[in-house]
Specification:
By secondary structure, the protein is α/β, with parallel strands linked by helices. About 45% of the residues lie in helices and about 10% in strands. The protein has a single domain, classed as Aldolase class I (TIM Barrel), CATH 3.20.20.70. The two termini are about 30 Å apart. The relative contact order is 0.20.
Length: about 400
């Protein structure tokens, strides 16, 4: 990902009147995407928990830290690549798992996978994907992929999802710990919109044989009588039924998903179950406290992702960049530490590496680019972020990504 070559190509295209399909400033993509996305879809993707304080804190933390460029260091040959779990990545970032991508573009996860494969960037499959993981894996070819796991109330389903992830070439399991309950997401609540109730974002479940068995078992079990009369059908309710019919999803499948998708009772004692059922590296996502980081390593985690779910879960939570140094110090060199939430530029990637992250996960910007220009939009964002990081690396006086340390920052 050579920044100079990317920069030159953009300027040469400009000579012929061709400009980038999406903005090269990733902070502009949210406003641009709002103009083309359906209001409820944009609200779901862009919204955070409560007042949005955590989302603002994520960005403020990046702004507080300042890069201190060093001069007269040979940066003519730069190496932005990093090693991660036996893979040499072209740049220190991956595509974060984002659910319900169909709300941004009809090609959803397939378009994202094609872009990731073309640019050599690892993709983390969402547990709440719009397309089953096997179809997405086929688009990726030999390109690396991981799988995000939401720990269901059914251990049989957990085992099935992990087995499928292994079978379709996933190289790590990312257990998302911070969403055992849905946060108080006011944008969605104000319009009464949850995509899963409309059959969106549950393709990993409806394509799973264990889930289908659970649906059948629930249908055979006696239901508790309800004294309240059934609500009268409304145009909105009929629209939801039509949405389910288009996706060939039954109301029983949606009901079963709602009942089992997350486990609020999950504890450290549950982790051995997963460790015994996969040889893949296990990363725990959502770690923000040093004590949790130490406990995670003691429990056999192979890596950590410092994350507050992009500000979508706890309003007023610590910014991930602020939490990162404490987690890194607690872990030392025992396992790699990654981070997400708020990354919007090559400078942000640089700052995260300086504070100890091995790599970052990019979230909302690529979904906004997907809404704006499909696969080509995602590809451009990946090229632009890689170019921005490469140039920032060189201009700050560094020749290789692993060389960046805390001395590169002030603040």
């Amino acid at each position: 990902m050579n920044g100079r070559l990317r920069q030159q190509q953009v300027y040469l295209d400009g000579v012929f009147g061709r400009t980038p399909r999406v903005s090269t400033d990733l902070t502009r993509l949210e406003a641009d995407a709002e103009r083309v996305m359906r209001p409820e879809a944009f609200a779901y993707i862009a919204g955070g928990a409560g007042t949005g304080a955590t989302m603002r804190a994520n960005r403020a933390a990046f702004d507080r830290h300042r890069i201190v460029p060093r001069m007269l260091r040979d940066a003519s040959r730069r190496d932005p690549s990093v090693d991660l779990f036996g893979r040499r990545l072209p740049a220190p970032f991956l595509l974060a798992p984002i659910g319900v991508a169909e709300m941004a573009h009809p090609d959803a996860d397939l378009a994202t996978a094609r872009a990731a494969a073309a640019e050599g960037v690892p993709m983390v499959f969402s547990n709440q994907a719009s397309v089953p993981m096997e179809r997405v894996a086929a688009e990726l070819g030999e390109s690396p992929r991981w799988f995000q796991l939401y720990w269901s109330t059914s251990n049989d389903l957990v085992e099935s999802l992990v087995s499928r992830a292994e079978a379709c070439g996933c190289e790590a399991i990312v257990v998302t710990l911070d969403t055992t309950l849905l946060g108080w997401r006011t944008r969605d609540l104000d319009i009464g919109f949850l995509p899963f109730l409309r059959g969106m974002g549950i393709a990993q479940y409806t394509s799973d044989p264990v889930f289908q068995r659970l649906v059948t078992e629930a249908g055979a079990a006696p239901r508790t009588p309800v004294d309240a009369p059934a609500p009268r059908p409304t145009p909105s309710a009929l629209s939801v039924l039509m949405s389910l019919r288009r996706r060939k999803i039954s109301r029983d499948e949606v009901q079963r998903f709602v009942e089992i998708y997350s486990r609020p009772s999950l504890t450290w004692d549950d982790l051995p179950f997963l460790r015994e059922r996969t040889k893949l590296p296990i990363l725990l996502k959502g770690i923000c406290h040093p004590d949790d980081a130490r406990r995670a390593i003691d429990s056999g985690a192979d890596g950590l992702i410092v994350s507050n779910h992009g500000g979508r879960q706890v309003d007023g939570a610590v910014a991930t960049l602020d939490a990162l140094p404490g987690v890194v110090a607690a872990v030392g060199d025992r396992v790699p530490v990654l981070m997400d939430s708020g990354v919007r530029s090559g400078a942000d990637v640089f700052k995260a590496l300086a504070l100890g992250a091995r790599a970052v996960l990019l979230g909302r910007p690529y979904i906004y680019a997907l809404a704006l220009a499909g696969e080509r939009g995602v590809r451009q964002v990946l090229r632009d972020l890689g170019a921005d990081f490469d140039l920032t690396l060189g201009l700050a006086g560094y020749a290789a990504a692993p060389d960046v340390g805390p001395e590169a920052l002030t603040g």
